[in-house]
Every structure is written in structure tokens, then in C-alpha cells.
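As a warm-up, study this chain.
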Amino acid sequence: MPPPAATVNRAALLLLSLILLFTALPAAAQTEVHRCVGKDGSPVFTDQPCSNLGARSIAPPAASSTAAPEGTAPSTGLLCAQDMATLRVAVAEAFNRRDANRIGGLTLWNGYGSDGAVDNIRTLDALVKQTLLSLEGDEASGIEAVTRVPGGGGASRHVHFSVTRESGCLWLRPPA
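Now compare it with the structure written out below.
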């Protein structure tokens, strides 16, 4: 004889309750991750508010229906250079760390397909392995990176990055 309908309904309800309980447990265990910039300019990811660490938040602002005040840039939640001094320091640090990805993060890739971007990152990877001798230029003329060619007997290489301003940030354009 089949079990009574009430027993089947109770078993189904108990099973559904257990499934819901177990799917909710991982969500309850997660904490918010705060994205910050430390005093030295390096990114910090923490479970504490940025102000507790003496850092500033780089989280994107909450969505709002009001426009940003005149003269302010919308936040993209990314680190960017707002002036030439900051951009030069970031480029120099990328060379110092031999970090082509950091240079790629300072680059505005609009208009490049994925193949073009990959080719440029490979070129940047070879470039940052060279010793940086100087960074010259300004926002209007761009940045000229002068590097020492490995095994070149002191020969130098000049690579030009155009600089463009977009969304309140200065960005490199890939070298030609």
C-alpha cells in the first residue's frame, strides 16, 4: 500500500528545507572584500574597511540617478594616473618590476582587437626586460621611454607612447 500523501508531503518539505539551508550556508560565510590603495600606492584587498588601514577606497561608487559634479571623472574602480607625474612613476615602477601587465593596465586599448592587444603585450614584455634609462615628455607630446638594449654595447632604444586623457585619467597608447 502506498504511503499516505501527508507523509510524502512532509518528506518533500523536509528535503526542500535541507537543500535551501545548505545552499544558504556558503553565502553567509562570505565577507565583503574592500578594494583599497595603500599609502605607498599599491593595491590592497582586505576584509576590513580601507580607513582602518590608513588606505583609500577604490570601490566604484554606488549607482545613482544624479550626474557627477562638473569637472569630476566617473570612477571605473581601477587605478589610473590623474597627472603626468603619477603616470611616469607607474611606468617606471613597471619597468623596475619587469611587469608588462602593469604597462598594459596603464594603456587605453580602445580600437585594438584581442590579437592586436596580445601582440602589443608581447612587445611590451620584451621592452620592460630592458633597463630603463629615462622617461621624457608631457601630455601633449607623449612619453619617450629610453632603454638600454641588452647586449647592444651601450646602445639605447627609444619607444614612444602617446598619452591621452579619458574619464579623468591619463592613459598610454600602445607604441607604434
